[in-house]
Amino acid sequence: MFEQPLLQVKNVTKKYGAGCQKCMSYCSTKLIKNYCSTCRTVYACRNVSFDLYTGEILGIVGESGSGKSTLMQCLYFDVEPSSGIMYFDHPGLKEKNLFHLSAQQKRLIRHKKFGMVYQNPIHGLKMHYSAISNIGEKLIAAGDRNVAKMESIGNMLLREVEIPVFRSKEKPLHFSGGMQQRVQIAKALSNNPPILFLDEITTGLDLSVQANVLDLIKNIQMEYGVSMIVVSHDLAVIRMLADRTLVMLDGEVIEEGLTDQILEDPQHLYTQQLVYSLI
Amino acid sequence: MKLTKHFAYFDEGAKKEIRRATLKAVAIPGYQVPFASREVPIGRGWGTGGLQITLSLIGKKDVLKVIDQGSDESVNAVSIKKLVQSTTGVGCTDQTSAATIIQSRHRIPEVPLTKEQVIVLQVPEPEPLRSIEKSEHKTKTLHAEEDYSGAWLQLFEQIMMFGRTTTNANHPVIVNDRYVMAPSPIPRFDNEKLHQSEALILLGAGREKKIYAVPPYTSVRSLAFDDYAFLVENFKGKTCRLCGAEDVFLDELVNETTKETEYQCNDTSYCLERLNNETTEEVGEYV
Fold this sequence. Notes:
The complex is a heterodimer of chains A (279) and B (287). Chain A has a domain at 125-192. In chain A, strand 8 (244-249) and strand 9 (252-258) form a beta hairpin. In chain A, helix 6 (147-160) crosses helix 7 (177-189). Chain A contains eleven helices and nine strands. Chain A starts with 6 loop residues before the first strand and ends with a helix. With 279 residues, chain A is an alpha/beta fold. In chain A, strands 5-6-7-3-8-9 form a six-stranded mixed beta sheet, with helices on both faces. A three-stranded antiparallel beta sheet of chain A has the order 2-1-4, covered by helices on one side. Chain B has 287 residues and is an alpha/beta fold. Chain B folds into two domains: 12-222, Bacterial phosphonate metabolism protein PhnH (Rossmann fold); 234-281, no CATH class. In chain B, 30% of the residues lie in helices and 17% in strands. Chain B has helices at residues 12-27, 48-57, 75-88, 136-144, 149-162, 188-194, 268-283, and strands at 33-34, 63-68, 91-92, 101-105, 118-122, 173-175, 179-181, 200-205, 210-214, 220-222, 250-254, 261-265. In chain B, helix 1 (12-27) packs across helix 2 (48-57). Chain B is globular. The interface between A and B is medium-sized, with 20 and 18 residues. Chain A: InterPro entries: AAA+_ATPase (IPR003593), ABC_transporter-like_ATP-bd (IPR003439), ABC_transporter-like_CS (IPR017871), P-loop_NTPase (IPR027417), PhnK (IPR012700). Chain A: This is Putative phosphonate transport system ATP-binding protein. Chain A: Keywords: ATP-binding, Nucleotide-binding. Chain A: One of its GO terms (molecular function) is ATP hydrolysis activity.
C-alpha cells in the first residue's frame, strides 16, 4: 500500500491569450520559449503535474520567467489556471478538484489550510497594520473572533520567528526586509496549515539573515511536520531544504527527482547547465 | 399649491429609477445597490443621496422632518426642507412622531420610530471595506464572497493599539447575518436603534451613487469580538442642562463664562418637546 499524497496536482496550465490551432496542437515544439508567435499567447505553465506528501519539502527551481511563481499563484488561488486539477487529501474534499470550488470555498481553504510567503512582503502583509494584526488577519479570516486568543497565538509566533514582543505592535513598514519576511512566515503559520507555499523567500536578504530564515523553515518542518513547496532559483537553498525537486523551463517541468540526484547527476541539458553554473 | 413643474423636482423617469433601486435595496438588506445619482441643487456630499430618496418617495400626504446632527434648524436641514416643500407643497414638522418621512444626517431621533415612518439617512461613504481595499471591483467581490476579515481587522488593530475599539460613529454592522454595512456616521449610541427597527431605514449616498436599506424588523448587529463587547457612548450620571433628560445622546459643551463642561440633548426637537410638556404641566394648557 502506497502512501496517499497530501496534494495532487495534475496538468496545471496557465496561458495568457486565447491560443490558436498552431500552438494548441503542437504545444511545445512550435513555440519560441513559451510564446506563440502567431497568436501571441504566453504559456506561463504547461501541464505541470506533481504530488506532495505529508511532511515533505518539494523544491521548484528554474530561471526567471520559467513559470515558478505563476504555478504558486495558481495553487494558492491568486490566479485562476486555464486548466488543470488539484486534489487535496482532506475529509470532505476528497476527489474534488479544488480549482472548481466556489470562490468562497477557495478562500476558506486558502485561509485555513494553506499558508503563503511571497517573495515581496508587500503582497503578503498589510504594511500599515501592526505586525500582530497582520497575524490576526489570517486568524480572523479563518473565523476566529476571540482577541485574547489571537493575540497570544500572534505573540507566540512572533517569538518563534525571533521578533521581539515589544515590536509586535509596530507596522511592518518600519521593519527591515528580513524581519518583514519573518512576519510573513509567522502569518502563514498562524492557522497551523498542513501546506506552506514559499516563493523565493530568501531572495534579496543578506547571507546571515538568509541563514536565519532557512534555519527557521527547517525547524518548522521538523517541529510541525508541515508540507512545503519551496520555489527558488538559488540551488543552495534547494539543496538545503528540499527532499525532492522539480526543474522548470519555459513553463514546463523538464526534470524531477530526489534533490541530490538532480544536483549530482542532472539529465536534461538545461539542468546540467544550471548545476554547473553554480559558483 | 399649484405646481407648474414636475412633482418633487425630478422627472418621472428619474423617480422611477430611484424607486427601483430602493426596492431592490429593501429586498436585499444591507446590499449596496448602484443607482444613477442625479444632479440636485445642492452639492454632492451635502446629503444628495438622502434628498434623492426623499424626493422619489414623497407623496402629497406626507409630512417631512429633516435633521442635521440632531438639529432641525441647521442651514442644511432648512435648505433641504425648503427645496422639498417648494417642489411638492408637503407640510414640514419638527415633531418626530408627526413626521412620515424623516431625512437625517448622522442621527436617529430619540423618540422611537413607528412602522408608519420611513427614515432616510445621508451617507458619505457607503463602503465599510473602503479603507482596507481601494478598488470597488475587489470590495464587491469581498461582499459577494462574504469575506469581511478587513472590517474585523480594523477593529482588531484598534484593540491592539488602544485597548478598545475607537470608532466614534459609523461602527460597522452586519445586517440580516449577511452583509456588513456602514450605518452612515451615526454615533454608536444609535446603532442599537437599527436592530429590529419598526420603521423602514433607507440609506443614500449621492456622491458614491449607492442606495441601501434595512427593512423593518431586521436583525442588525454591531461587529464585536467575543471578548470585547460592543459598547455605546456612556453618559452615566450626566443629564441635559435644559430638560434634564437621561439615557439620550448628549452633546458636550463648555460654558464660556463658568468654564464648566455641560451636557445638552443632541436631538433638539426631543429636548424642546420635553420643555414644552414641562411648561404645560406648570402653567396649564393655554386656552
